[in-house]
Every structure is written in structure tokens, then in C-alpha cells.
Amino acid sequence: MPLVKIFARSSLTKTIALPTLQSKLCAIWGTQPTTTKLMLSRVEDWTDDSFHEDVYVDVRAYGKPERTREFVLEGMEKVQAAFGEEGLVANVRLETYEGERYFHVPPTKEEAK
Known about the structure:
Elements: E1 3-9, H1 18-29, E2 37-43, E3 55-62, H2 69-85, E4 90-97
Parallel strand pairs: 1-2, 3-4
Antiparallel strand pairs: 1-3
């Protein structure tokens, strides 16, 4: 699971422990922290309160053959439970992509200094 975008209302007072969540998500998906990036965005509001969630979790993952629909849906439930263990109600969305259509240009080590 290379990219996990977490959206939370800016007014949310609950703690969102990114290192703890990253560890749990790596365990769920069998990935490493170097390939499982979590990004937290605080937002003013969203358009619908029908789910009463604390966070909206948007996952983008490489579509491997072993990541069947059943496997992914079970993993999503585990992700939702992991957030629940941290006291957060999560609305989870996951999208897979084909590796040949993925591009990434990270900064060089010199640029990152």
C-alpha cells in the first residue's frame, strides 16, 4: 500500500498517531514503512455527514494478482478496525492501479537536504 491519504476535519480533537497506524497498515498488507506512505490533511469540512466518520481514508495500491477483490475487501475491513483501535471512525476507500501506468519522480538526495 504505497499511498494512504487521511483526511480529517480541522476541528477533530482526537489524536491521529501516524507512526502507529503506519505500523498497523504494514502488518495488514505485508508491506514495509519505506513503501507505505501516510499523509494527513486537515480539511474544513466535507459535503456529507451520512457516515459520521472522524477520518476519510483514501488508499492507492498496486494491483497485484494476489490482491483479489476478496483479499482487498478483507484488508479494508482490517484498516477500518486499525483506525477503530486508535479511537477513530474511518470511512475507507481503496483504488488499485497497474504498475505500468505508475510514475514517480522523488527528489534527489541533494534536493532533500
